[in-house]
Each structure stands twice: as C-alpha cells, then as structure tokens.
C-alpha cells in the first residue's frame, strides 16, 4: 500500500509499505478514505520534536473497517468510522474514569509507537475505544475534525465555560467575557464552541489576518498581536478586571503569560497549548489573583458525542474548514504548504 | 481602652488607645469579648512581612455591637457578632459575585489599613458585610474560628472535593484519595471538613507530632515529614497514580512542589497557602499531568453559613481547639508561645 513516511525534518516521502494485519484481538483494520494533517505534526516535521524516523504519519483519519479481531464488540467489517488521535484501552483506571487523555496503555498514531493514518490502511488498536461510528450524513472533511482538533478546542472552551458558571465564579455566559489566545484550527474550534454555547463576548487573538477574519466571521472580536493593545482592550471591556475566562491554544511561554495577565482575579485560565518550558508567572501572583488554571489535553472519546453535536450545529460554518484536498501522493506538498501557513487545513484523499 | 499594638518584630505592647468612633455611615463599633491570634499574624510578628508600626493587631474577633452608623441594616446595638478577617464592601463587582476575597474596597483588620480586634473596642467598616450574626448557642472559642481559619480550611478542601466530584474528574468521595499538606489550625479545619463531607481516605502531612496526633484523631492518616516516605505511601495507596486531590496549606515552595508531585494526572491541587516565590513546577509538567490548580484565599462571607454548619457538626472535636485563653494584658506572652509552637490556638479574653 501507499503510505506517508517520516524521514526526518522537512523530509516526508510517499512509499510502498505492507498492509497492516490484525495483531491483537482488540485490533481493527481501517481502509482510510480521508486523512488529516494536524498542526501538532509540525513539531516533528520541523524537527522540534526529536524522534526516530520510518513511521507512517497522521493521527486523523476516517474510513471503512475491513477486518476486526475476535474481541472487537462495537465495530464490524463495512462500518464507517472516525478515529481518535491516540488509541485508548478502555480498561485502565483513567479510561474507566473518562480520562482517556491519560490512558496508561495509550498509543499515539503517527509516531514510533504506532503507524498513522496517512496511508491506504491503518491498524487501530483497542478498536472499541479508539474508533467511533461515523454518522452517514456528515462529510469526511467534517468528520476528520473529530479525530483531534474539534474535541480539543471544545474541551479547552467548556472547561472555562463550565467554571465560569460554577459556584466559585458565579456568572451567566451572557455577562461573561472570554479571550481565546490563538486562532489556528483548534482555536477556531474553541470559538465555534463558545458561540454555540451562548457566549456573547469573546476576544480572539492571533497574528495572522486570515485567522482573525475567520474568528470575526464566527462572532468573535478580533485582536491582532503587534497591532492592537490587547491588555488595554480587555481591561476596558471589563471595568478594569480582566476576562472571566481565558483559553490559551498556542503552547508557548509568551502566550501563557499573556493569558495569565488577561485573566481577572478569581477567573480561570484554560490552557490546552502544548507547553515545553517554565510556568511564566509566580506563585505569589497566583495567590494574589486567586486564579484557577487547567492544563493539558482533551479526553476525546469521552467528549466525542457532545462535541460532535456541537460540531453539527456548526456544520455550515465548518463546511469550508478544509482548505486543501490532496491525493496521498502529494503529501510532501501538503506538509510544505501547511508548515508555511499557506493552508488552513490539509486533508489527503486516499 | 486597652489595645495590643505592633511596635516591630517580636515587639508587641498593650497600650491605652482612644475608643474608636463611627466614622462612616456603614460602620459599626464592636465591644470585643474574644479575640483570636491567627497564624498569619506571625508573618508580621516575625518581621517577614514588613510594615509600619503603631496599629492594633488582630483580625479574629467576636463581640457585642455598641454603635451603628445610619446605613447599617442587618445589625443593631446589643447584637452578638462574628467578624470576617477583612472588611468587605458588598457593593463592588467581586462582592456582588460572592468573591469577597477580592473585594475592591477591602480593608484588612490588624494592619496599617485598619486597627484590629485585639482591643476592647474595634471599628468594623461595611458592617453589614463584615459582621455576621453569632448563633447564641455557640461558644466564643468556636465562633472565633469562623473569622478566618475555619472557612479558609473549608474552602481549600471543598474546592478539591467538588472538583473530584465533577465531570472531568468523575469520582465519588468514597473512592477518592486526598492529601492535606500542613496540619496547623487551617489544615485541621480542612481535615474536619473532609471527614464531615464523607471523605474516607485522607493523608495528613506535617513535621509536628502534636498536629499529626490531632489529624489522626479526626480520622486522617498521619505522615511525618522527614520520617515517612510520603510520595511512596501515597503512590502505593493509589496503584501508582497519586492522590485525586491535594490541599496545600503551608505556603512555601517545597510544599507546593510536593503537592504537585502527590497529585495524580487529571487531578486537582488546591493551594490555600500564602505564597511569595516562584511556581516550583514546569508548564511541561503541568501539560503532562493535565492538572488543575486553584490558588488563593477564601470568600469568607459567601461561605459563612455553610462553613458554620460544617463547624457545628464538628462542635465536640473543635471544643478543645483553643489551647490557651489569656487576658489582653498578656498579649505579648500569647504571641511568644504561639510563635514558638507552644500553643495550638491562643485567644484573648477582653
């Protein structure tokens, strides 16, 4: 079969590989129809995340089940499925408690652990937990958003929304003010969630004009890094307090610090960015701010149904989310234009 | 009148001062009957918290209203009242949203801002919000715990308890494991709350044997710093995961780091310690742990009724909480023995 193989920084090649086979009784094999290219793959592509080479890329894929192991219960040959970005065992303590993002037996697609979905076929371990039924009425380009980016943006946003409605930050979404730092694909998904859930005022911060235009089209108020005085604008909109909830989707130190500064006392900072460095604020500042901070990634399987429902409500707006459809053979080009911010979302049609 | 005046580090004197008068229409004057000595006053007493001198100490007091300004609605002369450690205006955005710990017009008793309650009389600004009615059937030594330490410990604990019961950490209190770092007065109040609310397994960490004995008597499992392997014990009790919720009541870097290490992935760290330095963990560690961290102090007025209800359920256990009753004239001795850990809780009878 054809597969997109990682050969090192900026070196992506389409090669022939053997078709995967059922290995464990909980495996399924999926014939891929649409595979996404996710922003988090750029860490590897750019050489920032060091890894051995030779694995098949991709952790977003939609396709048809062609084989199942004897212990697979919820999927059968011929089913259309959507995968989660990492296989989840459904048996460990974390999976049993709905916290699959920290599954003890998790295997991430598109890494040395597990070949990914940018291929004609892919082996999905723990298929009952890893694969979800794909509603027939939804387009592949919408479904591929469900593998990672939509539930991730959804989670980052509702963590903030639900906190703001809770007893220690008792506000209605009508009166609350939010900020989303970062308007890449995940940020846009967070904004879709906010607007769908009834948020009336949310600022969207980014440096890229196209992303800000998209955020504005969703109903957010765009603020451009380097042009607008973000701190001043948010403080003025909140009688000097700061935002009730801030979602940080960027994953660097400056963004996390900015998120902290934009959050009001007793507010919430929901950070879903992938961070590698220090915490850029002091414990004394945290005490004085009485802040609550959430870190880390989303339990995709747990949130799948409710996030899908939210995405369906954004069906029209999301219809044009994929900007580039390419055949698998043009994978190298796909990575190149995505890395250069010349494409919002690239999918490979297999 | 007699009053306990701060003259600098380790220099506390009882002096004659003029009786306070109504100054603003929302003021009340309280004839103090019992005034507590709180651990947080030691920051000033030991010279760690630099301040000018000359003010009257004390932010815990119970007494009888002797005068009210024309705008005081909920208290009248003759009422028995309990004060909150800082006056809260009830009018600013934070007060209106139940977040009095960040009242924009707050005045802390026992500081240069506002003379405190270790005196025969004290002026209470914003009396309607600052003073609470004292139930007649409760002893002064119990009521004085309501000014600060009990609601503070209560808040630190329920922030963790309620999170553990919420959708992103879905557990029952029956199965959850908690750790309380620090078993001074506030820590003991947090432990009382935990046990009253149905927590079955909570580890209590401290370096002082008497505190650990007290924690054990409440039903907690004592772990002594420097003797027990705290990390190992907690990991073994949780199949290697760590505690579901950790409450940190100490307020130093080592305790905050230890609290982080003891918290499991997707768990909660509720820090009510007063912190002055850095955050002793990396953003990358936070991401990997998917942790939620709460910082800061309690909204005492908001929680007063429910915290009092919880304290009443601990009435017998709390009856012996005050270890030393002294007349106001022996205030210097009170500070001295409290600072040397020779007293668990000192109150002055006026």
UniProtKB/TrEMBL annotation, chains A, B:
<keyword id="KW-0560">Oxidoreductase</keyword>
<feature type="domain" description="Enoyl reductase (ER)">
    <location>
        <begin position="8"/>
        <end position="348"/>
    </location>
</feature>
<dbReference type="InterPro" id="IPR013154">
    <property type="entry name" value="ADH-like_N"/>
</dbReference>
<dbReference type="Pfam" id="PF08240">
    <property type="entry name" value="ADH_N"/>
</dbReference>
<keyword id="KW-0862">Zinc</keyword>
<dbReference type="InterPro" id="IPR013149">
    <property type="entry name" value="ADH-like_C"/>
</dbReference>
<protein>
    <recommendedName>
        <fullName>Enoyl reductase (ER) domain-containing protein</fullName>
    </recommendedName>
</protein>
<dbReference type="InterPro" id="IPR036291">
    <property type="entry name" value="NAD(P)-bd_dom_sf"/>
</dbReference>
<dbReference type="InterPro" id="IPR020843">
    <property type="entry name" value="ER"/>
</dbReference>
<dbReference type="InterPro" id="IPR002328">
    <property type="entry name" value="ADH_Zn_CS"/>
</dbReference>
<dbReference type="InterPro" id="IPR011032">
    <property type="entry name" value="GroES-like_sf"/>
</dbReference>
<dbReference type="GO" id="GO:0016491">
    <property type="term" value="F:oxidoreductase activity"/>
</dbReference>
<keyword id="KW-0479">Metal-binding</keyword>
<dbReference type="Pfam" id="PF00107">
    <property type="entry name" value="ADH_zinc_N"/>
</dbReference>
<comment type="similarity">
    <text>Belongs to the zinc-containing alcohol dehydrogenase family.</text>
</comment>
<dbReference type="GO" id="GO:0008270">
    <property type="term" value="F:zinc ion binding"/>
</dbReference>
């Amino acid at each position: 079969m054809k597969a997109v193989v990682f050969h090192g920084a900026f070196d992506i090649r389409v090669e022939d590989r053997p078709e995967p086979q059922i290995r464990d009784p909980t495996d399924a094999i999926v014939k891929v129809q649409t595979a996404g290219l996710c922003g988090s793959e750029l860490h590897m592509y750019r050489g920032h995340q060091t890894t051995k080479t030779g694995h098949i890329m991709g952790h977003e894929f939609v396709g048809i089940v062609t084989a199942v192991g004897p212990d697979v219960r919820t999927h059968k040959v011929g089913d259309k499925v959507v995968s989660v970005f990492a296989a989840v065992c459904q048996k460990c303590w974390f999976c049993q408690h709905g916290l699959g993002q920290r599954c003890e037996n998790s295997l991430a697609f598109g890494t040395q652990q597990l070949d990914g979905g940018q291929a004609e076929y892919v082996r999905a371990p723990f298929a009952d937990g890893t694969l979800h039924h794909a509603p027939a009425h939804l387009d592949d380009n919408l479904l591929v958003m469900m593998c990672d980016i939509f539930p991730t943006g959804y989670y980052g946003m509702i963590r903030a929304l639900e906190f703001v409605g809770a007893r220690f930050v008792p506000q209605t979404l009508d009166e609350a003010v939010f900020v989303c730092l970062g308007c890449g694909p995940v940020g846009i998904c967070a904004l879709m969630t906010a607007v769908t859930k009834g948020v009336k005022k949310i600022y969207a911060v980014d440096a890229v004009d196209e992303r800000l235009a998209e955020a504005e089209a969703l109903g957010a108020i765009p603020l451009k890094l380097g042009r607008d005085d973000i701190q001043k604008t948010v403080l003025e909109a909140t009688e000097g307090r700061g935002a009730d909830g801030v979602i940080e989707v960027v994953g660097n130190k400056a963004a996390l610090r900015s998120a902290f500064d934009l959050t009001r006392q007793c507010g919430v900072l929901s950070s879903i960015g992938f961070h590698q460095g220090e915490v850029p604020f002091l414990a004394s500042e945290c005490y004085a701010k009485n802040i609550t901070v959430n870190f880390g990634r989303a339990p995709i399987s747990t949130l799948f149904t409710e996030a899908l429902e939210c995405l369906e409500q954004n069906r029209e707006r999301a219809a044009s989310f994929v900007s580039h459809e390419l055949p698998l053979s043009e994978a190298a080009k796909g990575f190149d234009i995505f890395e250069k911010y010349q494409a919002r979302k690239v999918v490979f049609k297999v």
